[in-house]
Amino acid sequence: MSGSKPDILWSPHHADRYVICDSELGLYRIGPVGSGETKAGALPLSVETAATLLAINSDTPYMKCVAWYPKHEPECLLAVGQANGRVVLTSLGQSHNSKCKELMGKEFVPKHARQCNTLAWNPVDSNWLAAGLDKHRADFSVLIWDISSKFSPEASVAAEKIRLSSGDTDSGLVVTKPLYELGQNDACLSLCWLPRDQKLLLAGMHRNLAIFDLRNTSQKTFVNTKAIQGVTVDPHFPDRVASFFEGQVAIWDLRKFEKPVLTLTEQPKPLTKVAWCPTRMGLLATLTRDSNIIRLYDMQHTPTPIGDETEPTIIERSVQPSNSLIGSFAWHPTSQNRMVVVSAANRVMTDFTVFERISLAWSSTTSLMWACGRHLYECAEGVGGEGTVEKDIATKMRQRAQSRYGHDTVQVWKNHLLAGGDDPQLKSLWYTLVPFPMQVSLMKQYTEDVEQKQQGSKQALVYSGIKNIVKSSSGTTENRRCWSGSDRQTDVPRFHSEERSLALRLCGWINRGPDINVEPFLRSLEGEGEWERAAAVALFNLDIRRAIQILNKGASAERGDLNLNVVAMALSGYTDEKSSLWREMCSSLRLQLKNPYLCVMFAFLTSEPGTYDGVLYESSVAVTDRVAFACMFLNDAQLPRYMEKLTSEMKEVGNLEGILLTGLTKDGVDLMESYVDRTGDVQTASFCMLKGSPGEVVKDPRVQCWIENYRNLLDAWRFWHKRAEFDIHRSKLDPSSKPLAQVFVSCNFCGKSISYSCSAMPHQGRGFSQYGVSGSPTKSKVTSCPGCRKPLPRCALCLMNMGTPVSNCPGTGKSDEKVDLTRENKLAQFNNWFTWCHNCRHGGHAGHILSWFRDHTECPVSACTCKCMQLDTTGNLVFLSRSQSD
Amino acid sequence: KMELHILEHSLKVASIAKEGIQICTHGLIKLAFLPSKTRCKFFSLTETPEDYTLIVDEEGFKELPESEHLSVAEATWLALNVVSGGGSTTNSQPIGVTKIAKSVIAPLADHNISVFMLSTYQTDFILVRERDLPMVMHTLSSEFTLMRVVNGETVAANSLGVTNGFVKPKLVPRPIIHPLSSPSNMFCVTSLDPDTLPSVATLLMDVMFYSGGIKEPGASSEDTGHIRFFSFSLIEGYISLVMDEQTTQRFPNNVLFTSASGELWKMVRIGGQPLGFDECGIVAQISEPLATADIPAYYISTFKFDHALVSDGLQLSTLSVSLSLSVCMVNCRG
């Protein structure tokens, strides 16, 4: 502090006052800029605050350290430690307090002069002032003075007189006898009182940290370390202490004092100050020499340091309060995260608030929460704003999971309704996934009734996509048809093959059967009010009259568009003359039509045969319609090229309509990958790809990743049942995903699983079949543990060992047993199962036990009063239903 | 149990001839006044009528030129320091070497281990030859908890556990065999705030290097029975000064730390011929009787002679009794 190094002390009781000490002491008051109190000479500290100098004290030269009296009164009493080891009490400003006057100028003098390094007032007994001094060969380095003590005459009179004559005018104010003397022949660099007990003092000595206990001064706890400077207790955590040495800060836990619980990253320059934030838990600020930044360490996540090996994580960051080099800083005692910084030169002060880190957390249900300082903000998805903003995919997936989306395996297309029925891509996807058994049946020349069989063996048949189907197209025939309802010959060639027909069916244009009849499809489109699309499909099937009819219908329908009549009029004027005015106008004006289907209708009519780019690349037209169109009008050379191009386009954008082309193949996974990248919808991806081939598609790491993520999502939403349902669904489609057995029956004697030796196939329950579960009488039964050959437990009723089928033994109520056996075969098998009470551990064959409890409430084992069945909830149900039926 | 710290400095002990001091001043000033410019952690310079004695660690030794005027004792020395340690804090405080006379110095003398003493304002350093360290540790391990300072951190020193081959101590009475003399000027052991060092640096340089030029008015120092003796040390950041009363008066007020009793010390100079480095028991011969009589003392070894500082005044008669034998010898020679 001697000139070069200033320091700041905040008043312990007035949050608006602080003292700057460099070569002198200056008391400042901080207040808002321009407020009535602040005078013209106020120094700006920030945009909003300014400081006013209240008082200056330059009475005490050779200042080394200063400490502010901790009690309310006297208010501005300071203890100053000097270069020669003397401690002087002084004050700032006028004080009329009598106690203050009495104490003012009082000096505490050590026997041997050497620098006073540190001072600490006892926070409880404020008369106690601890001073830490440099080393002397024959003196103590920690002196605890009682500021209320008077000059003690018994102290060696002669010697005192010699010394005091040199300058001390009023010897009544000099105290030479400390209350306690500690740390002989050692140096004390830093001190702080411990909040655990008012008589515990932590001192940074020459090469160790020591805790002196004033209740027993002959004992001290100490640890050898270099980090002995600036000891300071965390105000929020009384057992946590920070100290430093050169560039390194050590954090100690006093309960485990042997070594630091952590050391912070070493700074290249020596530290000058380390201070815990009084208003924020676990925040430590550090300052190094010649630096313009303050480094902050957030130990928020380490409330209790644990273990030898695990170093808790800390978040380090730095703040720059101003551009100049920082001399010192002090946290504001009450204002959150606020500090005043004083520059190394010229006493330039800055009022600065450390901006709190923002921590952010997503909940599993799309709401977002973030915390800053003492504020907590939540951002939830708007409930009322339906339709205006699209819901987050997580919300959608959650709703869909609740509506059992993906689980309808019979009417697969219905899944799009379960998903809400408002997503055209999902609609297309699930309609695409519907007809694949039919596709296969057709491909393999199966008859219609085969379809049912295939329901059972779904896994073997995988939809491979139109792209692959038309690739293998052969025997294409070409014909030119008339416009229906007109005798005019068209010059539009149409192509036919079995594969093309299949593709048309997959696109939903035609039904099963040999004819190409789009009428049912048109009707369904009319039914849904998709007039333009219906008209376009009719037109592509060369039925202009039907198209016009549809448009008229559409115009006259409820809320119909009257413009459709105009379009119908335009259509009716169709002419195939190449240079007609109609053609010229249509090809230019069609681009102004907003509806893509109306647009492609005219594109079709005005195109040259074989060049239908206006239709094929109109991206607003559904992929199914474009594919169907292509299958009708593109030749064998053009078709695969178009398919390839469209597929890669679909893959690029992740459009699920493209699954129609790719099928559930590797290509399909690629497409799905970009869909998931775009939407995050792992739910659809999981359900869809599970229908792919287990060997190739389901095993794909991407697919496994989606599945696992979807399962995790369900877990995060606590949809345990949904997750279990999904797992069951999954294991049906992908048997390799079945979980391994998780429950085993272990032998009483050797502790090994009794299914252990027979578990070559590690699947659940396999081993148990040999213990009477399978019910086959010819199969050899195992009645002893395969590990140690000791017998298995006996049935409490028939006294036979576990593994013996129930039919072999004469049990109670045998007649009932027979009824059960005839009634249901499955129940008979269950009767052979071994069951036991989890409370008393007695048990036996399930059949025996069940019949026993039909008439009894207590355990069949004599002297056991356990009411086993009443403890079993499902058992109670069975019991009740039985007794009702009886 | 007290702790004995074996410090990490590897020390050299050297003598600079008075006529050769100017070739070393550049290095010495750097070591004494500009500690941030060197990596030296242990520096002590003592001027006696014969020469300058320099104790410096290896880092500091690099600052000095090779010269015919600079003679260096062969051995590398290690400094030992007794610390009250983690145990009790007693209120009886024997000052300086008296405290360690019986526990350290005498046992080492019994084992024929030569020691070199340096007392400072802050503490006493017992220098032993590095090669004697195993023997030192063996000798003192029963009395002390031995600690080594490694990279500034104290760690338990490995007990060597070797006892075979060590010479059994011969516990014989130790008469004072070297002549003693006592100059008439009184001495002061003091220190100052390192922050004020720059303000008195020129004065210190004058005292340290130009004493020969100042002829005190009237009589020469020989005639008054005064001895020229000044010691400056800067060890681990702590400054210690030993100077006679007349020299203290050249310093401004409030710069030097005056101890509570303002005490002055009488010097006893040991040796008629240069003592060399191999003879053992010299310190013990002096310190043991002082400890017995509970007389506080400082002890400073230099390249050629040893110097004990003992309390002035009332205790002088006790001193005479304690050291009666040697006083007798001085008289014989005188």
TrEMBL record, chain A:
A GO cellular component entry from the record: lysosomal membrane
Domain of life, source organism: Eukaryota
Residue ranges of domain MIOS-like alpha-solenoid in the record: 397-633
Compartment annotation: Lysosome membrane
Name of the protein this chain belongs to: Missing oocyte, meiosis regulator, homolog (Drosophila)
GO terms under biological process: cellular response to amino acid starvation; positive regulation of TORC1 signaling
PANTHER family reported for this sequence: GATOR COMPLEX PROTEIN MIOS, WD40 DOMAIN-CONTAINING PROTEIN MIO FAMILY MEMBER
GO terms of molecular function: zinc ion binding
Pfam families membership: MIOS_a-sol, MIOS_WD40, zinc_ribbon_16
Source organism of this protein record: Oncorhynchus mykiss (Rainbow trout)
Family indicated by similarity: Belongs to the WD repeat mio family.
Span of domain GATOR2 complex protein MIO zinc-ribbon like: 747-869
Keyword annotations: Lysosome, Membrane, Metal-binding, Repeat, WD repeat, Zinc, Zinc-finger
Cited InterPro entries: MIOS/Sea4, MIOS_a-sol, WD40/YVTN_repeat-like_dom_sf, WD40_repeat_dom_sf, WD40_rpt, Zn_ribbon_mio
TrEMBL record, chain B:
Classification via Pfam families: ACT_7 (PF13840), CASTOR1_ACT-like (PF21389), Castor1_N (PF18700)
Gene Ontology biological-process entries: negative regulation of TORC1 signaling
Record protein name field: Cytosolic arginine sensor for mTORC1 subunit 2
Alphabetic keyword roster: Cytoplasm
GO cellular component, one term: cytosol
All copies of domain CASTOR1 N-terminal, residue ranges: 10-70
Domain CASTOR ACT: 73-141, 262-312
Record localization: Cytoplasm, Cytosol
UniProt domain Cytosolic arginine sensor for mTORC1 subunit 1/2 ACT-like: residue ranges: 178-260
InterPro entries in the cross-refs: ACT-like_dom_sf, CASTOR1_ACT-like, CASTOR1_N, CASTOR_ACT_dom, CASTOR_fam, CASTOR_mTORC1
GO molecular function: identical protein binding
Membrane spanning stretches: none
Organism: Oncorhynchus mykiss
PANTHER family associated with the record: CHROMOSOME 1, WHOLE GENOME SHOTGUN SEQUENCE, CYTOSOLIC ARGININE SENSOR FOR MTORC1 SUBUNIT 2
Main location: cytoplasm
Top-level taxon of origin: Eukaryota
Family statement: Belongs to the GATS family.
